[in-house]
Amino acid sequence: xxxxxxxxxxxxxxxxxxxxxxxxxxxxxxxxxxxxxxxxxxxxxxxxxxxxxxxxxxxxxxxxxxxxxxxxxxxxxxxxxxxxxxxxxxxxxxxxxxxxxxxxxxxxxxxxxxxxxxxxxxxxxxxxxxxxxxx
Length: 135
Hints:
Helix content is 33%, strand content 27%. The protein has 3 helices and 5 strands; from the N terminus they run βααββαββ. α1 packs antiparallel against α2 (41-61) and α2 (41-61) packs antiparallel against α3. Strands 1-2-3-5-4 form a 5-stranded antiparallel sheet, covered by helices on one side. It is an alpha+beta fold. A hairpin with a 2-residue loop joins β2 (66-74) and β3 (77-84). It has helices at 22-36, 41-61, 104-111, and strands at residues 12-17, 66-74, 77-84, 114-119, 125-132.
């Protein structure tokens, strides 16, 4: 039988509430998971930034709702999934020099090896990102 590329016991998941204070928990969770997977320092920094951006977007989109963050290895990559119960997909925003909104997804795209979004069959969406495990 073929080798599995993802072991179930390697999946780490954190559930947070859609409140701004929870972004810090999400960042800490990401950093600890990525360190535990033996990721390079650059990957740890990028992964923490990605989780911070995606969690913040979900907190804004789904205030007071449950948001789920999962991190797991797949060969030489690490997958980061952020689920929220809102069906609306993120829409690109026009960036301005003084505005604070619209920078999250461009930052994620810059740090990611791969990136995408899918709707969950049970409602809501998952934004997923793949980063190199070792830089």
